[in-house]
Design a protein that fits this description.
Bound molecules: iron/sulfur cluster
Helix content: 25-40%
Keywords: Lyase
Oligomer: single chain
Largest sheet: 8 strands, mixed
CATH topology: pyruvate-formate lyase- activating enzyme
CATH class: Alpha Beta
GO molecular function: 4 iron, 4 sulfur cluster binding; DNA photolyase activity; S-adenosyl-L-methionine binding
CATH architecture: Alpha-Beta Horseshoe
Strand order of the largest sheet: 4-5-9-10-11-13-14-18
Strand content: 15-25%
Shape: globular
Number of domains: 1
Structural class: alpha/beta
Protein name: DNA repair photolyase-like protein
Radius of gyration: 20 Å
Distance between the termini: 43 Å
Organism: Desulfosudis oleivorans (strain DSM 6200 / JCM 39069 / Hxd3)
Low-confidence stretches: none
Pfam family, one: SPL
């Protein structure tokens, strides 16, 4: 991870105790601003404004909802996931990171008005009629924040006290020290994004190695945490099949299948505007030079037969290790499901239902929520 070198504080954030806690943990001088445009001016002056945005932290308020629906699309099978929007952007640097093109320009932000977040969570827990699956790792990496905040500790404790929702902390870091002493009551899933060592080396700067991620997953498992893995993005290149299958084998060497809540598979897809960013910032990366077509959501995706061929192999290898572990596709249609898995989600009550059942089975949620 890159260190945070510059701190800006939105004046409205000054009255929150979290602001002072983060400033003290970073031990940096802070510039208090009234206009966020000043941060963007700082970035605009940098040679690589995306890289600069990873070193500049803005402590500010989340003026929208903390708890949101995952921005899945209506064209592909969506899983009903909810996002807890704790902050934005990341101190690691992956070529394919959609956040480079998602915010204009991207800047590291952390939301300090967490009293509002607490109220939203309380309401969600009280009103839940089915299991809630909530993750913090959609607009940021969940565990980068462990270097300067105790947010994850507090969230694990909050989720530990109820039986309706699971928290998924998705990461490419090994920042789990703060999680170790917690009485998590199996309500927090610690999840790692996995890829081949070749892609990690070429396209995931400032992250951790495969061995480190798997060793940390094993350590979390030994502490009783349910774990999950996300093969995303799966990248096609010569020799990729053997390398992805080897990663599957190593994953199961690290964690026995009965402790894995779910494994997702998602092939590389990108908004067209990300391509020039990758070409400029990662000139040695080859990932944008494949056989792509434009999907119904306007994202570029691999030609479907290529997606199916590789995903089927990976799914089969997972099934050889354990026929029952929950495997799902992130944003794929019924044809891909049928040809890779031999069924479509509807036959199992829908994708959301499949994942709800797995969450209930592994995370000690109230079984009555399944109806
Ligand atoms: S770890 Fe995730 S959030 Fe961070 S740069 Fe990589 S893809 Fe983006």
């Amino acid at each position: 991870m890159q260190p945070i070198s510059t701190l800006y504080i939105d004046r409205r954030a000054l009255r929150y105790s979290e602001t002072e806690k983060v400033r003290a943990a970073l031990n940096l001088p802070a510039t208090v601003i009234d206009d966020p445009g000043l941060v963007y001016q700082d970035l605009a002056g940098a040679e690589d404004s995306v890289a600069r945005g990873k070193q500049v932290l803005l402590l500010t308020l989340n003026r929208g909802p903390f708890l949101r629906k995952c921005p899945g699309t209506r064209y592909y099978r969506c899983c009903g996931y909810k996002i807890l929007h704790i902050g934005a952007f990341c101190t690691m640097d992956c070529s394919y990171c959609i956040l480079q093109a998602y915010f204009h320009p991207p800047v590291l932000q952390y939301y300090v008005n967490q009293d509002k977040m607490g109220r939203e969570l309380d309401r969600a827990f009280a009103g839940a009629r089915r299991p809630l699956r909530i993750g913090t790792g959609e607009f940021t990496d969940s565990l980068i924040w462990n270097t300067c905040t105790d947010l994850n500790t507090r969230l694990v404790n909050v989720f530990a006290g109820q039986r309706k929702a699971v928290l998924e902390l998705k990461t490419k870091t090994v920042n789990v020290e703060g999680l170790k002493p917690l009485a998590h009551n199996r309500k927090t899933i610690v999840a790692w994004s996995l890829n081949t060592e070749r892609i990690m080396a070429s396209d995931e700067r400032e992250t951790t190695t495969l061995s480190q991620r798997l060793a940390t997953a094993r350590a979390c498992r030994e502490l009783g945490y349910p774990v999950a893995f996300h093969f995303d993005p799966i990248v096609l290149y010569e020799g990729c099949e053997e390398e992805y299958l080897a990663v599957v084998d190593r994953m199961f060497e690290a964690v026995a299948p009965e402790h894995i809540v779910w494994i997702s598979l998602g092939t590389f897809r990108f908004m067209p505007q990300l391509k020039p960013v990758i070409q400029e910032r990662f000139p040695d990366s080859r990932i944008v030079y494949g056989e792509f077509i434009t999907g119904m959501d306007r994202k570029m995706r691999y030609f479907k037969p290529l997606r199916i061929a590789l995903c089927r192999k990976i799914a089969q290898r997972i099934r050889q290790h354990d026929p029952d572990v929950t495997v799902y596709f992130c944003m794929e249609d019924d044809e891909v499901w049928q040809r890779c898995m031999g069924f479509v989600p509807k036959q199992k009550g829908g994708l959301a239902r499949m994942l709800d059942k797995s969450a209930v089975a592994h995370c000690d949620l109230d079984k009555k929520l399944l109806g």
